[in-house]
Amino acid sequence: MGHGTVSAIYVSPAAGELPHRVPQVEAVAGRGLVGDRYHDDAGTYSGERWEPIAHLTLIAEEALAAVRDEAGIELSAAEARRNVVTTGIDLNPLVGRELTVGGARVQVQRLCEPCAYLEQITRPGVLRALVHRGGLRARIVGGGIIAEGDHVAEVAR
After folding, report:
1. What is the pTM of this model?
2. Which is nearest to 37 in space by CA: 54, 24, 62, 59?
3. Is the model's pLDDT at 68 over the cut of 90?
4. Domain boundaries of the chain, sorted by first residue
5. Which of 82, 86, 124, 134 has its CA 20 to 30 A from that of 8?
């Protein structure tokens, strides 16, 4: 089983707004993170025509370091536009698995591959550099508080 640590948390109240860092956040099952646009059904991918899989996104700090080291692109965690930054856990193998993230429980739905919009609002090369290391999309199935320093762990099957 994999396990790691929450190294940072980001929320963005409005679509297009650069996420800001918070020391902790409440995760609400079936909704998202309090203070984030997806919790309020105001995100770009909110609404009935989209699958409910954007409650929470995660990205590994190690992925951001690899983008810097391999592609020479400095991409901050806020610019990556993911909610939870982790360290010490390999995220990609967790697709389809259930995790605890601090006091919350999430069901990982799929990889969170980068999009052209992300490259457009950051810098050239970001899309290619983040392919297969852009993090995960997850549904919150059990609410709770997530704080910096909390554990991220795969739930035993």
Report:
1. 0.91
2. 54
3. yes
4. 3-60+79-110+135-154
5. 124
